[in-house]
Amino acid sequence: MQNGLWLILFMVIIGAVIGGFTNFIAIRMLFRPYKTFFIGKWQLPFTPGLIPKRQNELAAQIGKLVVGHLVTPESIQKKLSEEKFKHDTETWFSGKIKSFLEKGLTLEQLLEQFHIKNPSEKIHSFIDTKIEKKYGVLKDNFWQKEIQEILPNEWKASVHGKIPATADRIIQKTIEYFSSPEGKDKIKTLIEDFLKDRGRLWNMIQMFFGNDSLAEKVQPEIIKFLNSPGTKSMLVNVIESEWNKVQNNQLGELLNQLEDEKILFYLKKFVKDTVQLENFFKREIAELILPFRDTIEESFVPRILESAGIYLAQRSGEIIERFQVEDIIREQIESFSLPRLEELVISIAKKELVMITYLGALLGGAIGLIQGIIVLLTS
């Protein structure tokens, strides 16, 4: 009886060792050997291992599996429509914008990162070229036209309506001048200049009136003349006549004293002084967008992400196809070295593979136990 128990124990141990070792070898033969072995021209069976032998087919099947069943347009659309994903994406994107703005980069420094140097000079050069071309076009189109053809009717009506007020202002300023001591001195000087070459007449006038008395008598008359309605009417007619003459002139005649180079110089200088591009490009981006920062964070970011999500959802199939995801996965798996591939698979399924080995040992031990009992009963 004791010998029978030892026999059963021995057969259990031998069966467990054989079962466990067999499964261990079978698992190893999934990967090993990595290459084919020959004896002469005869290929040793089971060389190379299963996965090395079928690596290309495995890579192709995994690529089809991922594209056909895992990373599909439907799964992408489902992920993009999840509220948690949207919220996390908005939080991440807003954080990135905030982190970027806190760096204190100027617009010029940002453009330099894209290899765009001296942006203000380039833009000024572009604007100068546009001004020169536009000036040439305007000159060709308008230089031979009369001013009245160029000015809008509203402008001409506005100028004509302001002529009486302009005449009033001229008369008022003239009255103020001749009413002042400076004006009185000017009247005296004019009288002296007019009469000093008249010989006896000048001496006679000086004898009766004197210089100051004559100027005092003329000054009120000048002011009275300026205040008379006829003076305003005459001045209005003069201004209107001159304005009509100006309108009948060609624009080229009016500006014929100005050289093109000078006109272009002042035009370019005016634009440059007005725009101030140098200061604009040296300001920090955070400062430039400060008036719009709340709008960007509260409205722009959600909208741009929503639009991007809709675009990706609608074009996900096309994107996967254009990126050739299946080919990328296949090429990557094919490029894996066999030791690396073996390490990757074992690291993923290590526990399961160990359990398979133990299961083989358990089954082998069970078979040994049954065989031992059978042998014992039949001996």
For this entry, give a set of tags.
rod-shaped; mainly alpha; 2 strands; two-stranded antiparallel ribbon; single chain; 379 residues
Give the SSE order as H and E letters: HEEHHHHHHHHHHHHHHHHHHHH
Helix segment count? 21
- Determine the oligomeric state from the structure: single chain
Could you give the order of strands across the largest sheet?
1-2
Proportion in helices: over 70%
Flag low-confidence runs: none
Share of residues in strands: under 5%
* Mean pLDDT metric: 79
Task: Tell the overall outline.
Answer: rod-shaped
Note the gap between the termini: 12 Å
Structural class: mainly alpha
Count all strands and give the number: 2
Whole-number radius of gyration? 51 Å
Give the biggest beta sheet. Answer: 2 strands, antiparallel
Give an account of the 3D structure:
With 379 residues, the protein is mainly α. The protein has helices at residues 2-28, 50-53, 55-70, 73-80, 83-101, 107-113, 119-142, 147-150, 153-161, 163-179, 181-195, 200-208, 211-227, 229-248, 251-254, 260-275, 277-281, 285-288, 293-323, 325-335, 338-378, and strands at residues 38-39, 42-43. A two-stranded antiparallel sheet has the order 1-2. Strand 1 and strand 2 (42-43) form a beta hairpin. The model has no long low-confidence stretch (mean pLDDT 79). It comes from Lederbergia citrisecunda.
